[in-house]
Amino acid sequence: MIVEEKKKTLWGELRKGFITTNPLLVLMVGLCSALAISTRVENCIFMGLAVIFVLTCSNVIISLIRNFIPDQVRIPIYIVVIASFVTIVDLTLKTIPAVYERLGVWIPLIVVNCIILARAEGYASSAKVSHALMDGLGIGMGYTTVLLIMSVFRELFGTGKIVLFDKTIINLHIKAVPVILIMFPGAFITFALLSALLQWYQARKKPGTEEG
Amino acid sequence: MMRHVLNLGLRLFLVCAVAAAGLGFTYSLVKDRIAQEEAKRRARAAEAVLSSIPAQPEESEELTALLQPDFPDLITVFEGLDEAGRRAGYAFVLKSKGYNFITMAVGVDLEGKVTGIKAVTNEETPGLGAVALDSEEYLAKFQGKGPEPLTLKVDVDAWTGATFTSKGIANGVNMALEMWKRLQEGGGV
Description:
The structure holds two protein chains of two kinds. Chain A is mainly alpha-helical. Chain A has helices spanning about 1-5, 10-15, 30-35, 40-65, 75-95, 95-105, 115-120, 130-160, 185-205, and strands at about 160-165, 165-170. Chain A is about 60% helix and about 5% strand. The two termini of chain A are about 15 Å apart. In chain A, β1 and β2 (about 165-170) form a beta hairpin. In chain A, α4 (about 40-65) crosses α5 and α5 crosses α7. Chain B is α+β, with helices and mostly antiparallel strands. Helix content of chain B is about 50%, strand content about 20%. Chain B has helices at about 1-50, 60-65, 130-135, 135-140, 165-185; strands at about 55-60, 75-80, 85-95, 100-110, 115-120. In chain B, a hairpin with a 3-residue loop joins β3 (about 85-95) and β4 (about 100-110). The model of chain B has no long low-confidence stretch (mean pLDDT about 90). Chains A and B meet through α5 of A and α1 of B.
């Protein structure tokens, strides 16, 4: 929250999504789908793009109509806006079967991705349109970055190679891989390591601010 | 008070109306493409389930119209034709209830033996049912069954953790076998 009290610049709104208010590692929202799909790099690319699109669009629309939305029914309105954009993504992806076959089951999950609702409620509903746009892009890219880091780690060490669009990009040529990495416990382990790493980095950067 | 409630309702209604209009518009743009892709996917699945005979599938509106009144879950029937153009089997594309709905193609040869199964759409639970439905090894276990309806856990084992999906597949196969029987009795047109 300290960040948001400073003078807001567009660049700052975009950048904060990566570290200071990273949705996954700092705000800890939207974890369910992130843990589930980060088994493959390919899935994460598409999921990241879809989330960036939905998050940016819903942020902009909600910011545009923020004075029109009555307080008592704001949540249903957010859900309607978000669900509409998700359905648009869903319909559009259906025309690209190769992608839809891999990603189809995860798309509806974007509706319940708490990141989007959290940004609508906590940010876009009281921000200027331009800020909401940058926030959507920044948070979306922050989310995607973490997904990519997690999935590269999990796929590479969990299966020994990275397969992207049916091509093997990296092959470690090791037989005994820790398969647990691509199973559910592996998601938690990877996520915890990343989260710890970020905490450590931030604590080191500004010593003393963590205690107090 | 009354006015307040009306005001809330009206605003919510407006947002929903705009959203609905937007979605309707998007759907009208993509619906033809989606229908085409689905038809292609069905044809590919039909080809796959008949490849063991081997036979080329050809969609038959006649047979579909004949069976659909009694089998509402049937989507379409493909006739499998061998090289000489004679009928060698059928591929039934049908819906079956798994944990969600499964759309699958079931190939049946003239003796009423299952020649292959393939999922057309897989909306089962990722990691559980979806794995069973995607597993060629598991689906191959149904191959060669029939013409008598099969019983799950007797003729074919259920997939651990995916009982509903296994049941859905078995029911779909039985439905296909029943349709095959109907076609035989009806003289096969």
